[in-house]
Amino acid sequence: MGWCRIVSRFFLDNLKEVLVNIGNHFDLKASVFTAPRRGIYSFSFHVVKVYNRQTIQVNLMQNEYPVISAFAGDQDVTREAASNGVLLMVERDDRVYLKLERGNLMGGWKYSTFSGFLVFPL
């Protein structure tokens, strides 16, 4: 299983690029990864904030609950990035995605990415 794309039902409708989606467990239309099996998964994301005076907060969500977050809030730079990653116990059919809680991101899948893969099946 592998895929890469920034995802959320709440933002970035212009991002329609999936680089890898072995098994087709990432739903491009819903922008959600659905786990095909129980296991330990690795997830990471990298987002770039546009120049403005807003702080961004991005959460990695598992079944509507935030697991990890990343923030970028420097007001005096033209661009700023935020990243985070986690090893996560995931049950079959769990849904994992990113949610922008506040702020605006720089558009385009080349700047902001979300990826994950199965590390150890259980």
TrEMBL record:
Q: Which GO terms describe its cellular component?
A: extracellular region; synapse
Q: What's this protein's name?
A: C1q domain-containing protein
Record's keyword annotation contains Signal: yes
Coarse class of the primary localization is secreted
> Boundaries of each C1q domain copy?
1-122
Q: Which SMART domains match?
A: C1Q
SUPFAM superfamilies with a match to the protein in the record: TNF-like
Source organism:
Astyanax mexicanus
- Gene of origin? cbln2b
Localisation per UniProt entry:
Secreted
Q: Name one GO biological process term.
A: maintenance of synapse structure
